[in-house]
Amino acid sequence: MTGPWHRDTLSIDQQLALTTAATNLAREFDDTFGRETIERFLHSSYGEFAGRAVVLNFLPLLAERFARQRLRALARVEGDGDDGRPVALFLCTHNAGRSQMALGFFTHLTGDRAIGWSGGSSPAHTVNPAAVAAMAEVGIDISSEFPKPWTDEIVRAADAVITMGCGDACPIFPGRRYEDWDIADPDGLDLDAVRPIRDAIEQRVRQLVDELLPAPV
């Protein structure tokens, strides 16, 4: 967690938004998890963003989205949410460039046939604008994504864990398929320099999709 926070420090609007988020998650997961677990995941997810958020009004929404992903991952780990679709997790240092572009390609290519997640060992404040622009050039919108950390349940729920530059910080759990992609970091680069990185990621992702979702014979 980035830093301590307390519900009393939130504005009335933020408190109401967080309460609404808890209600939304409880409605979605009430057959799987108790309210205490749901709120714990929501509040810890909020804490992950509280110390580095650029726009505070978006915090409850980000927390809800991240808590939903974590709860879905935990359900898979516990055998309650595995629908047979493969899960790919893309990890890099800041979850702002490489892993976000890889997730964008993976989601675009697989649709609802697979599940894609991403994370970073030291998440940035925002997604790299050059990465957003490079992906927009190929018709994929990643502008609504946000840098986030990985958590144990997310890694344990993944079938394939793809790492890109996070080194020793990348998590290792037995039984997962791991690949390390040697791809340059687009941080600080302009759009012209990011394009070949984007294209290299696309090539790798297409190969991964072919392996996870082989064409029927």
TrEMBL record:
Signal sequence range: none
Molecular function GO terms recorded: arsenate reductase (thioredoxin) activity
Keywords from the named record: Arsenical resistance, Oxidoreductase
Domain Phosphotyrosine protein phosphatase I: 86-211
EC number(s) recorded for this UniProt protein: 1.20.4.4
Keyword Oxidoreductase: yes
CDD domains per record: LMWP_ArsC (cd16345)
Key word Acetylation present: no
Classification via NCBIfam families: MSMEG_6209_Nter (NF046112)
PANTHER family: ARSENATE REDUCTASE
Protein name, entry field: Arsenate reductase ArsC
Native organism: Pseudonocardia alni subsp. carboxydivorans
